[in-house]
Amino acid sequence: MYENIRYEVKENIGYVTIDRPKALNALNNEVLDELHDVFTKISEDDSVRAVIMTGEGKAFVAGADIALMHSIDAVQGRVMMIKGHGVMNLIESVEKPVIAAVNGFALGGGCELAMACDFRIASEKAKFGQPETGLGIIPGFGGTQRLPRLVGKAMGKKLIMTGEIIDAAEALRIGLVEQVVPPEELMAEAEKLAKTIASKAPIAVAAAKAVINNGFGMDMKTASALEIEAFTAPFSSQDKTEGMGAFLEKREPVFQNK
Hints:
258 residues, six-stranded mixed sheet, 11 helices, 2-enoyl-CoA Hydratase, Chain A, domain 1, four-stranded mixed sheet, alpha/beta, Lyase 2-enoyl-coa Hydratase, Chain  A, domain 2
């Protein structure tokens, strides 16, 4: 179905794998189009309750396709950046939690792709960075905005302005990733997190993701009002009745996303 990515669903978990290992899974227009298509499908598929994204081979995504960007002008570059932002924003806003299982290089657009996910679990072999200033450009898929929000304004400036590439341990220290594991345990840890979240009420998980994302940049009064509305909505759901009923009956809930 896709030429540059693989997608499958197993036990309510969607698996998205960037599959251009000869190009270190570099992002080009075709990959971006396929990612947009698959995450649109994921957003509409109630059977998917969590997503794991990773890369084939030794890279998560080593960056955008430099040969492509070298050959395009400012107008074409703007079109590509708008497309890239559309993909990252879609991944960030899709109701299902998205886990980046970072198996190797996550540089430039690859780092930006990982940052658009809700969680980042990294192999000990993973490398992160925004090396664009060394190429005469700046991050263009949201890196100037998401990186400082994750690691702090000054650290974000440092990593972007120096183009420094850091290892997984440093990424964990500064808050760019949530967990670092041996390479052979990466997918198992990502699946463990995905299955834990998938066992919760999908309506509640979606509401929590939306209110956290949307309220993050608001003042506390406005964000609190947003939380009140998000808290109230699930009270009319079957999943709320099932979750609380199961708790009182001392059994495991069976959520239906209704």
